[in-house]
Structures are given as C-alpha cells and as structure tokens.
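B., you asked whether I could sanity-check this one before it goes into the benchmark set. Here's the sequence:
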Amino acid sequence: MGRVDGKVAFVTGAARGQGRSHAVRLAEEGADIIAVDICHDLESLKYSLASPEDLKETVRLVEATGSRIIAEQADVREPAQLKSALERGISELGKLDIVVAQAGIIGQKAEPEQQVQAWTDVMGTNFVGVLNAVHTALPHLGEDASIVVTGSTAAMMITRPMQQTGTDLGGVAYMVAKQLLSQFIHELATHLAPRRIRANVVHPTNVNTPMLHADPMIRSFRPDLAEPKWEDAVQAFPVQQAMPVPYVEPVDISNAVLFLASDEARYVTGVQLRVDAGGYLKWYDYHA
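And here's what the prediction gave me:
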C-alpha cells in the first residue's frame, strides 16, 4: 500500500521539472493525478517554458506507475481555466485530497521594454497563480486534505532585492512572490486548521530543472563573464549551500511534498520546510 494510496492530487506546473517529479512521485505512492501546465512560452521570459509534448510525457510517466491522470493545458493566472480543468479531473477521479501548487517562472534579464511585463508575469504566476490554485481547490477539500506550495530559500533570506538586482524587475518579482506566498500559507494554515485541512510550504535551494539551466539564470550566477555556460554557473552554485553540493534533484523536493501530503504529516501544518542543503544556515551565519 502506497503512502498516498487512494488519494487524488491536483498538481500545477506538472509538464516538466519539479511539477512532473511531484506528480510522478505521488503516483508511485498510489495517488491519482489532476495535472495542469500552461504549455506555451511567455514573451517577457528569456527562456522556454514546457510544451504540450512535455505534458504528454508526464501523462505517460504517471500512467506507467499504474495510477490514473487527467491532464490539461491551463494558465494558473486564469481562475476559469483552473476551475474547468479541476472540475473535469474531479468528475473523472471522484474527489480531491491534495493540492500541490508548483507552477512557477523566473523573469530575470528581461529586455528593457519587457521589465514591467516580466514583473507582472512572475507575480501573476508565482503568487496570484498559487492563490488561484488553492482557492479553486478549497471547495472540494475535506478533512485531512493537504495543501503544499513551492516557495524558495530566497523567501527566507531578508534582503533588499531592488538594491541587489537593480532594474531587473522580473528577478525581484520572484523573491517578492515567494515571500508573499509564505505569509499567505501561514495565515491560510491558521484559518483552515479547525477544518483539519493542512497547508505547508517547501522551500528549495537550486533544483536541477530546466529553469536552473536557463540562460538568464546562468548569467545571474556568473555576471562576471560575457558569455557564461552551464559549466561556469555550476562552479558558482556551491557557494550558496552549507553542504558541498551545487544543487538538489527534483525528487529531493518531491519526497518532502510526499511527506507533507501523506497521513504521516497529519498534524503538520503552517510549516516552512527548507530543503536547501543548509543554504539558509550559510546565509544566516554570513549575515549574523
């Protein structure tokens, strides 16, 4: 018997990266999946998002575990799209027990004329998109349901992002959105506790996904180089973590999501869980 056997999980951003990993890991432990992803690029971003083919691959991987999956293209910024996808999934799978609000983008290094749009797209996806996913799901959740959202260690580190990143509004928006959703989940967990619905945040450090490999991210880690490559960025990654690793794998985050979604965490709510290889500890010691 799996750790989430018989449960149904709603996963946003499920076409690749962490979202796909979460969907597959939950499916391996017995959950059926309702998966959504935007599956098209945004003009303000300087890297490609997932494709419809990526979402089809997630479907294949989940079905290979023996679990069922309903997958649709949907933009988390659009509540009507989420509502349609979720209601279709529930109609076919019968219920909803778990929400994993994973969909996220980063708008670093946008062109000057796209700076404001990058801010809007990142805030709309990483913060408003989480609110949309959670509030679309809430009417369908009962006792012992679990809400898990993806934050970032950036949200745990008190910084002055405008001074740190200058006019890079898309980069600033990422940090601000993650800080806001952390506060949102704290308040939501308090509100939902009497209903025995739990809400928690997982805060990853660098995760080995397409976002980490994107050119804007690489340039942010190696601004000293005119044309940095992945290998150059990897050399800079370990300085962020106390443990001697450049990044963690998606499954490392998925295992935390699985725990929080399972009955093993039935009394765990309002937690800000860092899976960061000691990144926060290193930052704290440096700034103490």
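One thing to flag: The chain is about 45% helix and 10% strand. Otherwise nothing jumped out at me.
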